Amino acid sequence: MFIVGLSHKTAPIEIREKFYLNPLQQDLLLSELKNHPLVAEAFVLSTCNRIEVYLKRTGPAVDSSFIISLIAKIKKINFDFNPTSHIYTYENTQALDHLLRVACGLESLVLGEKQILGQVKGAIERAREFGALSRYFNILTNLAVRTGKKAQHETVIAHGGSSISWAAIEMAQKAAGNLQDKSVVVIGAGKMGEIALNHLHDLGVKKIFLMNRTGEKAEHLASRYNGIPASFWNIKEILSEVDICFCAVGAPHYILDKEKITNIMEIRQGRKLVLIDISMPRNIDPEIKTLPGVHLSSIDDLHEVVDSSMKKRESAIQEVEAIIRQKILEFDDKISKLENNPNSDFFTVPA
Fold first, then answer.
1. At what angle do helices 115-129 and 191-203 cross, to 10 degrees?
2. Per-residue DSSP letters for 135-196?
3. Alpha helices in 177-310 (DSSP H)
4. Which are the contacts of 226, defined by CB distance < 8 A and separation ≥ 6?
5. 293-320 pLDDT per residue, tens
6. What confidence category does residue 74 fall into, taking pLDDT thresholds of 50, 70 and 90?
7. pLDDT digits (tens, 9 = 90+) for 258-293
8. 88-91/183-187 β-pairing
9. From 48, 104, 245, 247, the catalytic residue
10. DSSP class of 105
């Protein structure tokens, strides 16, 4: 087993977004790996905070340089920096330990983040549909999902708020104060946008607008959380009115640039505007941060609020690590049985 990856621990957001793989690019990478003679099994995990390729390889030629070149080929880019300084690799037991730590949320920006387990399951299902998993990785991935569930259910590792969206709300409160009397727009009705809507609704925010590329989805979610669906055509008017904007779109380009926000700030006549960009790649031009009256935060800024809210979850780390050690022994036992009896099945598909 071999892992090649980078994460928020090894690379800032401006590097991670260059490696980020959208669903189509993940499919292309899986196809390349599946057809490679030295790759027996594989899956790809690409989130806002990590891009990791998990391999069962049959030769050392499939190394980190090979994976980096494949990603560059699929994304049709040339890296204008040395990416190897941001890359980590793990093999065998260290690789297994890392996967289980990721599934349990121990490697997340928000310790104990619940979303990562769903993202791991999604990556597994994508690879399974591609036919890129076989016996070894079916056992491995089933174990990873069960370990993540066990950590969430039997420890307090996910106590309280435990998502990027939750941390973004905390950041907004730090920048703008109590949100109850504020007006907010959420751009993007995907998973992170919906979680942000839920948190804002629970906080009793006065007015919530929701923008999404698909108007029908925006209307559905807005009605669920007492929000107001809004069109992208009205983004200038909305941003001229609201106090806070959460952006969770994932478009391949900036949807808010410096010129647009400069014009909006003239309309606002000095009223502060808080922008929180939790998109990957970023969808708000970081140069906007230089404008007077604008507070802009991205994913990498969230550690400021995360670090002060982790004490209770940190108390569960040793418990989760004990679960991981026990699951590694369980995995070794299953693989030993499989090697001794290759015609048997020792796995079930994760729920």
1. 160
2. HHHHHHHHHHHHHHHHHHHHSSTT-S--SHHHHHHHHHHHHH--STT-EEEEE--SHHHHHH
3. 191-203, 215-224, 235-241, 258-268, 303-306
4. 201, 208
5. 999 999 999 887 776 667 778 889 999 9
6. very high
7. 999 999 999 999 899 999 999 999 999 999 999 999
8. unpaired
9. 48
10. T
In terms of residues, how long is the chain?
A: 351
Contact 346, 338 (CB under 8 A): yes
User: Residue 109 to residues 165, 168, 300, 305, 310: CA-CA distances in angstroms?
Assistant: 12, 12, 9, 11, 11
- Contact between 61 and 38 under an 8 Å Cβ cutoff? The reply is yes
Mean pLDDT of the chain: 91
- Structure confidence at residue 309 (pLDDT): 63
> Quick one: tokens of 150?
């066990």
Tell me the residue type at 92. N
CA distance 306 to 312: 12
| SS3 state at 98 | helix
104 catalytic? Reply is no
pLDDT tens per residue, range 15-49: 999 999 999 999 999 999 999 999 999 999 999 99
Tokens encoding 192: 């992170």
